[in-house]
Design a protein that fits this description.
single chain; 505 residues; mainly alpha; 79% helix
Length: 505
């Protein structure tokens, strides 16, 4: 399609063909191809805002901030069309794979453009949202304050500024800001966001009370009812959230959104058939991925792996733009089904779409370990660590893999120590630290860590580690008791059986 389009002699016809080619590749997450088509499209139509917005967004996806800024400048150059370009740019960014729409490549682009084009309110709002995601709270406040100087009653600007103040460590100032604005005018948006900030500030009772009162005063706004139900679910008050959601469902309001919430509640309770029923009824295109994820989770728990794969196939056939996510889901199904080779193939195919996907690269590394391709697994984890040097999951995965192989133990200890500093409450990392200490010949230090890990994270692998350390320390009675309990408790007992065989000789 791309070659055919670029060879057209008629400029208008060529531009139309190239726009279709770019759109086709963009919706399938084939960003290098989409970018090439968008650039050719721009050659045919240099001032086309659609082409400029797509090319600028794709440059972000391909980690080309300089190119993104250069293209965006062209879209922002004419003040009368600047806001239209920003709206198109935001729409294109929102359609990118979520793994690529992180603050890391996007924040320098939006910050530079906001400084260069401070007259664009849409651009300032975008830059503020991106800076919030990047935890650059001073930048958020700067952009929000520029917006508020133009329009002191801009609710969205007050909310994002308050959120930045709260997350930046000044909750009193954040709440005071919204309280002051609510005193000046009635605003459902301000009140709703005030309740959400209370929740984020660990004031759940006050947050729910505020939301309930807001709903009482505005019974004609069912979105407030849904917001309250979500808040209650977030707080673990499912028994209160569920009847509210069922009432909304009976009234026929935002049925698919409500189905998603009720399906999530059923899954949280382990009622997998009910979860299937709720998710299977979702028809909204915007919730297609969420519905497929809910179905896959439920079918995997029911060990209906063919049904899970059918849900993935239905997603990809109906919505080709979710091909990447579908491959990721298919890999997870194969992994759960004990088919590591097929899981690895799915993950590697997904990486053809998004080569820098941290999620898929990590999943591929784990599958390489499962297939005992340890050298490749370690290499894959080392490459991940180069790109994510302070990622506790990556550090732990590499450290544990080395420790479990009994190689480069001091290096493994260093990786796991840093991971534990970054995520001190993660039981999997606590287990890894215990295991590497044991491998280093320090079982006395390993014991309390493994006990802590098993208490927080009952898992057969952790139990096997603790049993082995107990046997090595001569606590054979306790080790044997734990081993017998664990063999009864867990389904996957291969590691436990290996420990039993080793120490029963």
């Amino acid at each position: 399609m791309l070659a055919e389009a670029s060879g057209r002699s008629d400029a208008f016809e060529a531009a139309s063909e190239l726009s279709r080619a770019a759109e086709f590749a963009y919706r399938r997450d084939l960003y290098p191809i989409a970018s090439e088509a968008a650039e050719l499209w721009l050659e045919q139509s240099p001032d086309d805002l659609e082409a400029l917005a797509l090319a600028a967004a794709l440059a972000v996806a391909l980690d080309q901030p300089g190119r993104s800024i250069a293209v965006a400048r062209r879209g922002l150059a004419r003040p009368e069309k600047a806001e239209r370009f920003v709206a198109l740019f935001v729409d294109r960014l929102s359609g990118l794979n979520p793994e690529l729409l992180s603050a890391r490549p996007l924040e320098p682009v939006t910050a530079a453009l906001a400084r260069e084009f401070p007259g664009s309110s849409g651009l300032l709002a975008l830059a503020a949202r991106v800076a919030l995601g990047a935890e650059r709270y001073d930048e958020v406040l700067h952009h929000a304050n520029v917006l508020l100087r133009r329009n002191p009653g801009d609710d969205a600007a007050h909310v994002i500024a308050a959120t930045a103040q709260l997350r930046g460590g000044d909750p009193d100032m954040a709440l005071a800001r919204l309280t002051e604005q609510m005193a000046l005018r009635e605003s459902v948006s301000l009140e709703q966001n005030y309740a959400m900030l209370l929740l984020e500030n660990r004031q759940p009772r006050e947050a729910v009370s505020r939301m309930r009162e807001l709903r009482r005063r505005h019974p004609d706004l069912p979105e407030l009812t849904l917001a309250e139900a979500r808040m209650l679910r977030l707080l673990g008050a499912v028994n209160l959230a569920e009847p509210i959601l069922l009432e909304l469902f009976a009234r026929g309001w935002e049925v698919d959104q409500v189905r998603k919430e009720l399906g999530g509640i059923a899954a949280d309770r382990g009622e997998w058939l009910e979860a299937v029923e709720w998710h299977a009824g979702i028809r909204s295109e915007t919730l297609a991925l969420a519905a497929a994820q809910g179905l896959v989770r439920a079918f995997v728990e029911l060990e209906e792996f063919d049904e899970a794969l059918a849900a993935v196939l239905h997603l990809v056939r109906g919505y080709p733009r979710h091909t990447y996510e579908g491959l990721s889901l298919a890999g997870s199904v194969m992994q759960s089904a004990g088919r590591p080779r097929e899981a690895l193939a799915a993950y590697e195919e997904g990486l053809r779409y998004v080569p820098d996907s941290r999620q898929l690269r990590m999943a591929r590394a784990h599958m390489l370990v499962a297939l005992e391709r340890h050298r490749r697994a370690v290499q894959a984890m080392e490459e991940l660590l180069e790109d994510f040097p302070r990622d506790s999951e990556v550090l732990n995965a590499l450290g544990y893999t080395l420790a479990d192989r009994g190689i480069r133990l001091e290096e493994a200890h260093g990786h796991i120590r840093l991971a534990l500093e970054l995520s001190p409450d993660a039981p999997a990392i606590v287990d890894s630290m215990g295991w590497v200490l044991y491998r280093l010949g320090r079982p006395e230090e390993a014991l309390p860590l493994l006990e802590q890990a098993l208490a927080a994270f009952p898992h057969p692998e952790v139990a096997a580690h603790l049993c082995e350390v107990l046997f090595e320390l001569g606590q054979t009675e306790r080790a044997g008791e734990l081993l017998r309990e664990s063999l009864k408790r867990f389904e996957d007992t291969a590691l436990l059986e290996a420990v039993q065989e080793r120490y029963s000789r």
